[in-house]
Inverse folding.
């Protein structure tokens, strides 16, 4: 299964996403994902130093600025 | 609904956009959006430390430099 | 009107462009623009701390390194 | 063999991947790879200063943020 | 004339190119350019603080990492 | 000859490659190159301050993170 299909298979479950920049660790429920790895997360929380920093709710992430995606309930 | 369609559905409402770089938090009314997430905002305001820093008016944002988009009136 | 068409409609008028990097604020007359937001500016001036830093003349800007475009005579 | 095919030939073996950012050295077993060098690694470990820093498990990496890929068992 | 065609029209003449990163100011004779603004320069010189720092000779530049191109003999 | 063809013509000879980031100067024998300037180098060595820092062997480089390519035996 190609990496972008692996991500799409995670729709409905929780993911950890690392964005470009230093402090952009986000966790949320993956609501949709396209082939460019643009992601729409629900109930998104920003994480810093292992703690929940901010609640962001519904967030759309631009695929090219995503470093990595880790499934939290694989 | 794919992430870029989610963004297009926000046309006419207020959005929070985080651009690459440290201080690029913008809020404005989404006037148009294409499939690359290039955005045209109206009544745009730059935000820093939670406060309105500068009023920028009409602004076109290049999609690949957008980190994330958050609807403010979901 | 899509964001890149909004930019193309600005041809012939003055624009403010923010490029990647810290000090890349440019102002000039938009001479041409394509769908990737590659821009050709004339009479370009580099701005720092709100002042004209350098006169650059004719400058071609690579679209993917543009953060935002603001019309100066909307 | 083109570079992306060279990477695809490494599926099933261990790779070292350097991502954008300072501390993003990852090692894992390459599970899948597409033509954009999006990668899906299993048993992924983050490396810092030559030591295993964190165990990350299953990780999807966005191709455009990969600097380089080194086969560990060529 | 589109921006990338403007660059291609500069083939055979000297250009100033600013790349991503802090110190990547290059000047050379433009030998070829494609629609992605990938450039091949000859007799390339790296510039720092307005002075010639290093002679680099024949250099291929990746278009997406080019910030701007300025013709030196327009 | 377009810039990416110029790079492909260097297959079999030694090249100097500068990647994004501060210390990513690599030298190696170009084994393959595609139109996106993804490169596969053999006998790769990382260079810092003009000295050979690390021997990396076989390395695949992602094209969009390449700043420039310089032929070492033109």
């Amino acid at each position: 299964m190609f990496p972008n299909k692996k991500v799409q298979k995670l729709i409905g479950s929780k993911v950890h996403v690392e964005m470009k920049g230093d402090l952009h660790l986000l966790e949320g429920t993956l609501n949709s994902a396209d082939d460019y790895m643009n992601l729409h997360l629900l109930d998104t929380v920003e994480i810093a130093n292992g703690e929940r920093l901010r609640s962001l709710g519904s967030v759309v992430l631009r695929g090219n600025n995503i470093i990595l995606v880790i499934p939290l309930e694989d």
